[in-house]
Amino acid sequence: MWVKEMLTLNNKKDNLILKDITKEDLKDVLNLYNQNDENIYATGIDRMMSLRDINEKYLEVLVNSHEFFIGIFLDKYNGLQLVGVIKGRIDYENSEEAWISSILVDNRHQRLGIGTKAAEAIIEMLNKSYDVKRFYIGIIAGNHIGRCFWQKLEFSYFRTIEQYIKLKTLAEDFIILKKEIS
Ligand SMILES: CC(C)(COP(=O)(O)OP(=O)(O)OC[C@H]1O[C@@H](n2cnc3c(N)ncnc32)[C@H](O)[C@@H]1OP(=O)(O)O)[C@@H](O)C(=O)NCCC(=O)NCCS
Fold first, then answer.
1. Which of 21, 86, 113, 168 stands 20 to 30 A from 106 (CA)?
2. Which atom of ligand 1 is nearest to the CA of 115?
3. How far is the CA of 174 from the centre of ligand 1 (A)?
4. Which atom of ligand 1 lies at the shortest distance from residue 110's CA?
5. Which pLDDT score is estimated for 1?
6. What pTM did the predictor assign?
7. Can you list the domains of the chain with their CATH numbers?
């Protein structure tokens, strides 16, 4: 039996509910990840994901008190609808630093400010509740939308890791962006 340890960052912002992904959500999460080609930028895996892949990712987070895997839900009259996920961790050695390893918003709900609201809420919670001061994200160099998204949230260039990942036979650089809250 797995003991649930993961970092809990539940919150409500306007019509969005942020809450830990549970085992029951995993099929919906899988559908989100497999929705289209762009999502390889969130997963770093250039193939369709399987339920087994997603279960493994989930278990890694579940037993780890530094990691979070949050669902972004819309509060609908007939219940909660999963429209995105955001995943990351507080650094093991330096608890003033956190990594947001991926964010993904359902295609049909993109460009409505959902990603921005969710990322802002997570950053605020990590800062207020856990005293995190420096936030890092990494994006694959070809992900222009991702870069625009994080730059609009005031993340700025930190460094590049060259030829970091192979996606569709092309070796891509990984660009680290950073935001500091004083
Ligand atoms: C990146 C992503 C999470 C953005 O989510 P979203 O909810 O659509 O984002 P928002 O509506 O809050 O957009 C905020 C800003 O991001 C930028 N942006 C978002 N989508 C864009 C697009 N299709 N084209 C250009 N800029 C875009 C814009 O600057 C936008 O501000 P604006 O609408 O005022 O111009 C979403 O596009 C996604 O899931 N992409 C695939 C996975 C991925 O690349 N994740 C990021 C790397 S981990």
1. 168
2. 7
3. 18
4. 8
5. 52
6. 0.93
7. 11-180 (3.40.630.30)
